[in-house]
Design a protein that fits this description.
Distance between the termini: 48 Å
Helix content: over 70%
CATH class: Mainly Alpha
Structural class: mainly alpha
Oligomer: single chain
Radius of gyration: 22 Å
Order of helices and strands: HHHHHHHHHHHHHHHHHHHH
CATH topology: Growth Hormone, Chain: A
Shape: globular
Largest sheet: none
CATH superfamily: MFS general substrate transporter like domains
CATH architecture: Up-down Bundle
Number of strands: 0
Number of domains: 1
Number of helices: 20
Amino acid sequence: MQATMGSMPDPTRDSQRYGLYVLLLLHLVQVFAYLDRYGLSIALEGIKQEFEVSDTVLGFLIGPAFAIFYAIAGFPLARLADTRSRRWVLAISLGLWSAMTAVCGLARSFSQLAVARVLVGVGEAGGTPPSHSLVSDYFPPHQRGRAMAVVTAGSLVGALFANAGGAIIVGAYGWRGLFFALGVPGILFAFLLAATLKDPPRGRFDSQAARSGDTSGREVAQYLWSLPSFRWLTIAMGMASLTGYGLTFWFPVFFLRVHGMDMIEMGVGLGIVGLLGSGCGTVVSGFLVDRLSGRDLRWFLRLPALGLLLGFPIQVAVLLWPHPLIAMALLIPSGIVGATWATPSYTTAQMVVKPHMRAMAASVLLFSLNVIGVGVGPQLVGILNDFYQPGVGDEAVRYSLVTVSCVNLITAWVYIVASRRLPSDLAKRESEQEAPVA
């Protein structure tokens, strides 16, 4: 009898193993999303030369062409993820943006390339909201920070392969070959996702009161607006991403133009320091915020503020340092402290809202991140490049990036304001969970 009992499968262990498998799948979704985003930055110089466009036009391709339609598609796709199958929203979205990434390699004019990028943005709008909602239903509150960090770290792994591998592919096959190499594997992965990802019950770690109710989209929007911490967090994420995407998308151009590095040296270098810097910062911030928030929940938003303040002088040193290898090496400490805002921000949004609002909450943050961050950041750098260029030539991108970096000083203050309002919003949610269900 004992032997029989000993051989019985442990359902709890199997559930934990499957949860880790899901975490791997969601991590890879982010990898594929950011392979495309950072791969484009590697292709910029080739696109500029072939289509003979200005930096302002390149900024439009990186930013508004992607971000505006990402933002427009984000809300209906998030609503679908909150009310329908998260698995299918995620799989179909991944298949669409991967296919459109490959189509970018077929573009015969800049306008065709811009249309393809628009459709990439529409597809990617359905990636993160269902992923974050799934994390909240596979991992209990005390593990969500680190789980969210693993998912978010996919962006850094994507950046590593896009920068390092992308530079090698561009050198061998040109920028068109890069888009084929980035898009086709994502299409295949979408089929694996659809076949193996299970959609768990919503709010499985929440109270019955929190799980109940069928709220309209308008009521969800009103509820989110009623949370001061969420309003300030939305602004803070937009501002943090303005600097983050502005710098990240233009760093390859910075090292090519200002420091004269060759394509492969630049791409491999940025890929490695990005993973060591921002990758470590993203993962460590998840574990750190789980620990610090046990003492004071305001650390969910204090930590991003602290990281942005500490990272600012290092970012400026990266941009002004005359030696390219030292400047690139400084991206490691800059990334470690500067990447602490994303994971705590996403985790906070999932924490302050009700289970059937989580994909929509993530979508609101992503709307701000993409409209302000992706939409404005790279475009602003491109405009500043053309503005500074008559006076300083190729050094223009250096001063454009320094200018944009200063935004982080204001962003840190916005995070502090949000942190002060977080306890009352969490108390409001707890009181609503404890109220009897009608």
